[in-house]
Amino acid sequence: MTNIDWKKVEEWDNKYILRTFATQDEYQTVPIESTEGDYLIMPDGTRLLDLFNQLYCVNTGQKNKKINDAIKDALDRYGFVWDAYTSDYKAKAAKLIMEDILGEESWPGKIRFVSTGSEANETALFIARLFKNRPNVITREHAYHGWTRGASSLTRVKGTRSGITETDPNTEQRHVPGQQDGVVAVAPSPNCLRCPLSHKYGSCHDETGELACVTYTRRMIENQGPEQVAAMVTEITQGAGSIHPPKEYIPQIRKMTKELDILWIVDEVLTGFGRTGEWFNYQHYGVEPDIVTMAKGLSSSTIPAGAVVVNKEIAEFMDQFRWETVSTYSGHPIAMAAVCANIEYMIEENLVAKAKETGKYFKKRLLELQDKHPTVGPVNGAGVLWMVELVKDAKNTPFIKLDRNTTHEADPSTFPINIINAKALEKGVLIGGFVPNTLRIGTSLDISKEDIDKAIDALDYALDHLDKLAEQKQKTLV
Ligand SMILES: Cc1ncc(COP(=O)(O)O)c(/C=N/[C@H](C)c2ccccc2)c1O
């Protein structure tokens, strides 16, 4: 154990660092001394099995030896060169993505590296608007695409729009003035569980089989005038929003964007690099995007990295111009060394196929919990990304009525995800979510069956407690 004065660490942390998602008074320091595989290790040696996978971004496991060794080797050669210069690492990272991963697909043209997912989505928005020379963009309810200006104009998970709330629900909340400006229209999310049509009619397909949310999206774009719309931006599975779409949704959205001649930007920041059992989540649906953004699993987060891949037509267009944009750390050689090692490790260990197999085991174990616990509603997901709806009753009534439109002025101790989190922590398992009624589970691609069983046992223990609370209809679960 390293000889760190953790009392001093806690003092400095409390005294100097701006908080998020908690007031200073609410804030609790959670010291992590080191990490390993799917575990976080606290200074006293407590090992926490992390089903958040941090922010669903440590795909090849914490402290991956191949990645760490690659970073050490790169540090023997580099400090830093900016994007105007070429390192072997940046060129090889591009080759691995464009040939080794995407080589069998006809659409990819070129790639640009940045440092985060928000920057990847900012870059995609610039490129789409430049290429189509149109201002408008379509996002969706419950979308999360980042916190920076353009990316946050797409973000609609209400509790992640960088606003501030006090702890008293009757006080003022404040969203960043002007942040939601900008020519962004909001289409419905394919959230069938909460769709009024599915509730009333059991399904929402029209006579052609088109989903109502797709029909409504089309009408929105037609109302704006497709000639004003540069692109529609979608996560295939909404991560922060915790929504896995019905299987026909993505192919119908892709067909619609082609018919209306608008670009389709797929945000694979959270779902990319094997998380759902394919290299990229869109590949489950037999469709090809125009632009894909990525981060998190791109490097598995030991060092931050993001990227944007554009189709051939856009690449040829961009190549004709002097593009006046710069991001200091774009293609950072040490980050690119981590990207190369991460991808090579995934290929050598066949981790994408492993995640697909692991997904079958996750589904089996989660459905066992659904059979046993009345508070477990629909279970959706794939690979090592799963959403578990927590419900009051057999009608799937949410505990927190505002559901995905809840912000943080509500008392977080009433959120079922936090009740589960506190009970599972008693078993050394970190599990929770972001929207109040939905657990979101994420792990490394090569999590062991033993650790999945440990997670399920802890979740089973926590759900027993939630079942009792729901049964007693206690005040805390209004
Ligand atoms: C689909 C998607 N696109 C872009 C970004 C922005 O990437 P960044 O942070 O700029 O590197 C993110 C980040 N996820 C955040 C951290 C998250 C995840 C789960 C719950 C709540 C929030 C993302 O999920």
From TrEMBL:
| Record bears the keyword Transferase | yes
Keyword Transferase tagged: yes
InterPro entries xrefs: Aminotrans_3, Aminotrans_3_PPA_site, PyrdxlP-dep_Trfase, PyrdxlP-dep_Trfase_major, PyrdxlP-dep_Trfase_small
GO CC annotation terms, alphabetical: cytosol
Q: Which UniProt keywords apply?
A: Aminotransferase, Pyridoxal phosphate, Transferase
Q: Which superkingdom does the taxonomy of this entry point to?
A: Bacteria
Source organism (scientific name)? Sporosarcina ureilytica
Q: What is this protein called?
A: Aspartate aminotransferase family protein
Molecular-function annotations in GO: pyridoxal phosphate binding; transaminase activity
Q: Which family does it belong to?
A: Belongs to the class-III pyridoxal-phosphate-dependent aminotransferase family.
